[in-house]
Write a structure and sequence with these properties.
Helix content is about 40%, strand content about 20%. It has helices at about 5-20, 25-40, 45-55, 60-80, 115-125, 140-155, 175-180, 190-200, 225-235, 255-265, 275-285, 300-305, 345-360, 375-380, 395, 450-455, and strands at about 85-90, 95-100, 105-110, 130-135, 165, 185-190, 205, 215, 245-250, 265-270, 285, 290, 315-320, 335-345, 365-370, 385-390, 430-440. The strands form four sheets. It has a seven-stranded parallel beta sheet with strand order 10-13-14-9-8-15-16, sandwiched between helices. It has a five-stranded parallel beta sheet with strand order 5-4-3-6-7, with helices on both faces. Strands 1-2-17 form a three-stranded antiparallel beta sheet, with no helix packed on it. The N and C termini lie far apart (about 70 Å).
Length: about 450
């Protein structure tokens, strides 16, 4: 069967399901969305286990926590939000907003998040009364497919239209290209190539950029509190999370205190120049992240570098030669390795972060540990990223948290800095069309010419 005929079958089934689903009430829609989240929550351990087995990356316990955490927080965020019919009335402007489906969504999902990304994309699509067709990463076909099967079993029990959520059973680049050019909207979460293909599909696309989270530690914080957070973010799921901390930029006059805190919390400080070079070569091959190092444990990274690490080591820290192009360690490292930089003035810290982001990760996220609002907002003005996570573990907070106001998601837009169409966290509102009813407002004030052109 040729690719077009194969994909046409998926699109036709999706359109039939979506047409039936379009008549659902808000209550009926939310019942299905909750069922998707509850399915992943209830099967968190099983799904995490098969994801680790198939992809051979990440940490089982972290994937369990991610499956439970993302399913619950995303549902909590969507619960009670209007996405059907009239969702807002503004008496002042006379505008009434009416939510309508976008149609059929196509979603490209990654091997780094093969369970929660299909889950969240399906939740957002169904919240808007859309059908969705998922094309999984070739290294995660089995676990992503099983996730969709379990979600569909839950929907079937609620008598939902069949084929609201589908996943390709023949994964290929050609099929992905055909799918994304046939759907009404495309969500691309994954490598730069797939995201670029989504934007070239001729259909509206929502993609994400590369991560390379710069973490600035200010002088005024409790290092004993900040350092464990940085480590937790760097080692979560063996470092494959795009929002995970990548570099710690620390004050030079507090350098030893902070390094001591890292070591106390299980860090291996690489001081030997030969060892530093061995780790660079283990992590990067011809300047590109080594596939054999992605999502591997700290001790496996040690073995790749020919360094026998003590058993209790949790993270590897290496002081870089300098920011940006001066050291490969300034790039994203999808393994438990953290680059260290020293700064004198807070403005210097921001410049280091800026140089690293220009190399990779512009538009994504920055973590700041500080109690100084002036410094925080200086960085907010100077750095071209879409989210600043303050005094939190960035890996588990940039994608939304119970403790911040960011929309819970697994798809983090990076704006035009990261060649993306959105500079916020993707959620259901990106998968609805809104009609605006504009009532005539005869009492609206109309300025005189003097009022119009005055400086007041």
């Amino acid at each position: 069967m040729d690719s077009k005929t194969y994909i046409d079958g998926y699109i036709e089934r999706a359109r039939m399901a979506q047409k039936e689903f379009e008549s659902y009430s808000q209550e009926q829609v939310d019942e299905l969305v909750m069922a998707i989240a509850k399915t992943v929550y209830d099967n968190a351990e099983y799904l995490a286990k098969i994801a680790v087995e198939e992809t051979e990356m990440g940490v089982l316990e972290d994937k369990i926590a991610k499956n439970k955490g993302k399913s619950s927080i995303i549902w909590n965020s969507l619960k009670g939000k209007k996405s059907v019919g009239i969702i807002e009335r503004d008496e002042q402007t006379g505008i009434v907003k009416v939510a309508k489906p976008v149609g059929v969504a196509a979603a490209i999902t990654p091997c780094t998040n093969p369970i929660v990304t299909p889950m969240s994309n399906a939740m957002f699509a169904l919240k808007g009364r859309n059908a969705i067709v998922i094309t999984p990463h070739h290294r995660a076909i089995k676990c992503s497919t099983k996730t969709v099967e379990l979600m569909n079993e839950a929907l079937e029990k609620l008598n939902a239209p069949k084929h609201l959520i589908q996943i390709l059973d023949q994964q290929s680049r050609e099929n992905t290209r055909t799918l994304i050019s046939s759907a009404d909207i495309v969500i691309a979460t994954g490598g730069a190539g797939m995201v670029k293909a989504a934007y070239s599909s001729g259909k509206p696309a929502l993609g994400v950029g590369a991560g390379n989270v710069q973490c600035i530690i200010d002088r005024d914080v409790d290092f004993a509190e900040a350092v464990p957070k940085v480590i937790a973010g760097r080692i979560f799921d063996n470092g494959i999370i795009c929002s995970g901390e990548q570099s710690a930029i620390i004050p030079a006059d507090k350098y030893q205190d902070i390094i001591d805190e890292f070591v106390k919390n299980g860090a291996y400080l690489v001081n030997n120049p030969k060892e530093k070079e061995a780790f660079r070569k283990a992590i990067f091959v011809d300047g590109v992240m080594n596939r054999d190092a992605v999502g591997k444990s700290v001790h496996e990274i040690g073995r790749l570098a020919g360094v026998d690490l003590p058993k209790d080591i949790r993270v590897i820290i290496i002081e870089a030669k300098g920011p940006g192009e001066r050291d490969l360690l300034s790039k994203e490292k999808m393994c438990p390795v953290l680059a260290i930089y020293r700064y004198d003035d807070f403005k210097d810290a921001v410049e280091i972060a800026k140089e690293n982001l220009e190399l990779e990760g512009k538009g994504h996220s920055v973590a700041i540990h500080s109690n100084n609002r002036e410094n925080i907002e200086y960085a907010g003005n100077e750095l071209s990223v879409s989210r600043f996570v303050i005094n939190q573990i960035c890996a588990s907070s940039a994608g939304g948290s119970y403790y911040n106001g960011l929309a819970p998601t697994n798809t983090l837009g990076c704006g035009t800095w990261g060649n993306n169409s959105i500079s916020e966290n993707l959620d259901y509102k990106h998968l609805i069309n809104i009609s605006r009813i504009a009532y005539y407002m005869p009492d609206n004030p109309v300025p005189t010419e003097d009022e119009l052109w005055s400086h007041n």
